[in-house]
Write a structure and sequence with these properties.
Helices cover 28% and strands 25% of the residues. It is α+β, with helices and mostly antiparallel strands. Keywords: Exonuclease, Exosome, Hydrolase, Magnesium, Nuclease, Nucleus, RNA-binding, rRNA processing.
Length: 935
């Protein structure tokens, strides 16, 4: 059956054009109910014959009650295509969650294509809004199910839309609100998952907080979107993403393109109910209110925010305070800052997520089973406390739980939310690790059967077709080897170095040919694209790809034949590249060494076997290449990478220390960098508009200010006019202290912006530059087992070599940009999860090991200073004043980076060595921390 759908659209020239499209309707779309005699022959029978009711859910239910729908108690749900389309347009994250439920074979969620069914398709009516039309389509589909299934099962429309429910009942349908349906299930705990409806929806019976009402208006009403849009256009308001200071939750920053600067937002009232990550509209305050704030270490249990403003720790958190004048805590009027200060007037796009934490300790209410009100405290200090109501308070005390935000009223100091689920006992290592993963949105779900079905049969071996492929070179005769961290099983890179008759070297970088097994558009590819990267925690790895691929089929292990994608150079002994070629290949690695093993071979002068000679030749070339990079301006930065020794049985940390970098590490790094640069040049030449590249923006003057101030205070004059000038300055930053130079490099690292992926068509060539590497072009090619970016680049390179077609997605600019954005998001989250895992294991280690050690002062504050502990790679605050005392008698000299107590000879300066005591304390319930104190 054929229907015509017409609509109008506006052309680029401004003309109104009528568009008519054919809409095919069918009568063979099945209902999904198991016993249905009409449909059972060919239907996917997901709806249970024993179901108490078949639930047809409204769009508002999916959008706002997704946590409830994900609970196993909710089954036999019909998702109409009109509902899924609405959800996809309004909230992509919720759409992905409901889609996962629909394809999960263990859940009874059935998608019914009501817009394609002859009996459930509804035509648009004159004067009817799209929302009313969709509500009507939902009622029509519910009626069809009711008539189609007859007396065999009850069909129930679930909606929180007051008008839609009224019309449904008038039309003879069974309709209930979410709350009334959940109450009928007689599972009181489920009511905690029910989101309190908004004012336009059906009222929830006991949603009111019956405690004494606080009528005072705490926050300003948000401006309507029409006014925000007009204000943005006129320059009255400024749009940007709000980032809350990680070390002081009462200070935030909004990057604004319209004024080319970041706007400081001070205090919760000025944040006006916005959350970290929200896209907000900001109004600037009068310039005489742009006061500088003093730099304090914020207390863990800080509640009053208006006088607490902490200078951020890193470029990722916020801009720098550029003032370098001497100031004291007791000084009079504040100076006026050049940095704009503003307040949030509206929310353009919310970034509410689920949050991990625990309930604030409180007296248990008399009786049990009733509704109790509690405050949830997130582990992430940037998140305000959240008020929830629960019927299972006694089961949630002393537990890590997940809570979602529902609303935030102007009359309420805290947002309202609902309990989602319990993770486990507070302090339990597995529980706290899961919290780390949830907080950073790390996907830990097992790979689905659809994904696993994409894997090649095991055991996998090389086929005759692989060897016969004219686009794949047989390199099994070449002496290829790998060098990786100890115990590495997912080996995705290997090298060879062959001395040629003309005295030059043939050097090859061989990368696992992952795209031979991960094909575009498959469930395996889609899963890898969504995960973006493997995540490395202490003693644990969350894979981007299933283990049969990462540890077997694609892993370039010793003495097995594997498929690779190779970059091969001819190089002179001076590391000059004569020629470059790229090829798919077959290799057979002769050795899989750890960095320690490779270094030991190179250092042992008694060893002159071919493999050791190859290593030494590669190392000689790498040293020359590294020096050339540095001469171009590449930065040699430093970070405190912590290494744990883990107990094989308890998985608790036995020892902690700084990860040691050897020449072998640097040798491998050099050739991986060279391969990435070569591939970037190749793919951009062939695909100038759709290549996936990686850039590192230059740090701004404000970002470098803390480094310059610290250097100046110890007599160093750093030149930051270019990466080359900075690199040379860092090389010359030396004194009698052997750790001094590394400290300066660590401080320089923290001033840098994050490197990011981007689509070449989105930026101009000058913006492609990678500041840290001093490279005009860069990408990621060398780790496709662990990073989806490399998978994308492998496809681009294969197409550039004309050995594979470029997938259609590369024709879609916005989709490519979306891929790059997701990769940046996933990469950042993986980094944060890794750091949080290190912090967790650091707490576990020192919980039973109070320690005295040396530390270096790296930041001066008005009430103390921040120290770095070289032995353990740990950083933390030292308080010079009692908690809550904002500086006392101490005077801060910003110019010389020194804090002094008047009338005494007691003072502390940046980079000074101090003796400290380290132990784990719990200043607030459920928030243990590593406390550092002066000895």
């Amino acid at each position: 059956m054929l229907q015509s759908k017409s609509f109008v659209k506006k052309t680029k020239q401004g003309r109104i054009q009528k568009v008519v499209r054919e809409h095919y309707l069918r009568d063979d779309i099945y209902c999904g109910f198991g016993p249905c005699s009409t449909c059972a022959a060919a239907a996917e029978r997901k709806l249970d014959a024993a179901a108490a009711a078949i639930l047809v859910v409204d769009t508002n239910v999916v959008l706002h009650q997704i946590d409830l729908l994900e609970n196993p108690a909710i089954e036999d749900v019909v998702l109409l295509s009109v509902v899924l389309d609405e959800v996809k347009n309004k909230n992509l994250a919720v759409f992905n969650r409901i889609k996962a439920l629909c394809i999960n074979k263990a859940r009874r969620f059935y998608v019914f294509a009501n817009e394609q069914h002859r009996d459930t398709y509804v035509k648009d009516m004159v004067g009817e809004s799209s929302n009313d039309r969709n509500d009507r389509a939902i009622r029509v589909a519910a009626r069809w199910y009711q008539n189609h299934l007859g007396e065999s099962v009850k069909v129930l429309l679930i909606t929180n839309d007051r008008d839609n429910k009224r019309k449904a009942i008038e039309e003879g349908l069974n309709a209930e609100t979410v709350e009334s349906y959940v109450r009928s299930l007689a599972q009181p705990g489920l009511l905690d998952l029910v989101v309190v409806p908004t004012s336009g929806d059906v009222t929830m019976e006991d949603a009111e907080d019956h405690r004494p009402s606080k009528k005072k208006v705490i926050y300003n009403e948000h401006k309507p979107m029409s006014e925000i849009t007009s204000g943005l256009r006129c320059g009255i308001y400024h749009q940007g993403k709000l980032r809350v200071n990680r070390y002081n939750p009462f200070e935030a920053y909004v990057g604004s393109e319209s004024i080319g600067d970041e706007i400081v937002i001070r205090g919760r009232s000025s944040m006006n109910r916005s959350f970290d990550g929200d896209i907000v509209a900001v109004e600037l305050l009068p310039q005489d209110q742009w006061h500088e704030s003093k730099s304090f270490i914020a207390d863990d249990d800080e509640e009053e925010e208006e006088d607490v403003h902490l200078v951020p720790n890193s470029a990722d958190d916020a801009p720098r305070n550029a003032s370098s004048t001497q100031s004291s805590v007791g000084s009079s009027a504040p100076s006026v800052s050049s940095r704009p200060v503003g307040r949030v007037v509206g929310i353009i796009k919310r970034n509410w997520n689920s949050y991990c934490g625990s309930l604030q300790p409180m007296p248990m209410p008399a009786g049990s089973g009733g509704v109790a009100h509690a405050l949830f405290v997130s582990k992430d200090r940037r998140i305000p406390k959240i008020r929830i109501q629960t019927r299972q308070l006694e089961n949630l005390v002393n537990k890590r739980i997940v809570v979602a935000v529902d609303s935030w009223d102007v009359l309420s100091r805290y947002p309202s939310g609902h309990y989602v689920r319990t993770i486990g006992d507070i302090g339990d290592k597995e529980t706290e690790t899961e919290v780390v993963l949830i907080e950073n949105d790390i996907n830990t779900r097992p790979f689905s059967t659809q994904v696993l079905a994409c894997l090649p049969p095991l055991p996998w071996t090389l086929s005759p077709g692989d060897l016969a492929n004219p686009n794949r070179q047989d390199l099994r005769h070449v002496r290829v080897f790998s060098v990786d961290p100890p115990g590495c099983r997912d080996i995705d890179d290997a090298l060879h170095c062959t001395l040629l008759p003309n005295g030059n070297f043939e050097v090859g970088v061989h990368i696992a040919d992952v795209t031979n097994f991960v094909h575009p558009g498959t469930p395996l590819d889609e899963e890898a694209a969504q995960r973006g990267t493997s995540v490395y925690l202490v003693g644990q790895r969350i894979d981007m790809l299933p283990k049969p691929l990462t540890e077997d089929v694609c892993s370039l292990r010793a003495d097995v034949e594997r498929l690779a994608f190779s970059v091969i150079w001819e190089m002179t002994p001076d590391a000059d590249i004569i020629s470059t070629r790229y090829t798919k290949s077959v290799i057979k690695s002769c050795a899989a060494m750890s960095y320690v093993e490779a270094q030991a071979r190179m250092d042992d002068s008694r060893l002159v076997d071919p493999l050791t000679v190859d290593l030494r030749n590669l190392n000689s070339l790498a040293k020359i290449m590294r020096q050339r990079r540095c001469d171009r301006g590449a930065l040699t930065l430093a970070s405190a990478e912590v290494k744990f020794e883990i107990d094989s049985e308890t998985h608790d940390p036995l020892d902690i220390g700084i990860y040691q970098i050897r020449e072998a590490n640097q040798m491998i790094e050099e050739f991986m960098l060279a391969a990435n640069i070569s591939v970037a040049e190749k793919i951009l030449k062939h695909f100038p508009l759709c290549s996936l590249l990686r850039r590192h923006p230059s740090p701004t003057k404000e970002m470098l200010e803390p480094l310059l101030r610290t250097a100046s205070s110890v007599g160093l004059n750093l030149d930051v006019s270019s990466s080359k000038a900075l690199a040379e300055s860092l090389d010359n930053a030396k004194n009698n202290d052997p750790y001094f130079n590394k400290l300066i490099r660590i401080l320089a690292t923290r001033c840098m912006t994050q490197a990011v992926y981007f689509c070449s068509g989105d930026l101009t060539f000058s913006e492609y530059y990678h500041y840290g590497l001093a490279a005009s072009l860069y990408t990621h090619f060398t780790s496709p087992i662990r990073r989806y970016a490399d998978v994308v680049v492998h496809r681009l390179l294969a197409a550039a070599l004309e050995i594979a077609k470029l997938p259609p997605i590369f024709q879609d600019g916005p989709q490519l940009t979306g891929i790059a954005d997701n990769l940046n998001y996933r990469h950042r989250n993986a980094q944060m999860a890794s750091r949080a895992s290190v912090e967790l294991h650091t707490l576990i280690y020192f919980r039973t090991r109070p320690t005295d050690t040396e530390a270096r002062i790296v930041k001066i504050k008005a009430n103390g200073f921040i120290v770095f502990v070289p032995k353990f790679g740990i950083e933390g605050p030292i308080y010079l004043t009692p908690k809550g005392d904002k500086g006392g008698d101490w005077i801060v000299d910003e110019v010389h980076q020194r804090v002094t107590k008047p009338g005494t000879n007691i003072s502390y300066a940046v980079l000074q060595t101090v003796r400290i005591h380290m132990e784990v304390v719990e200043p607030q319930p459920h928030r243990p921390k590593l406390q550092l104190t002066l000895i």
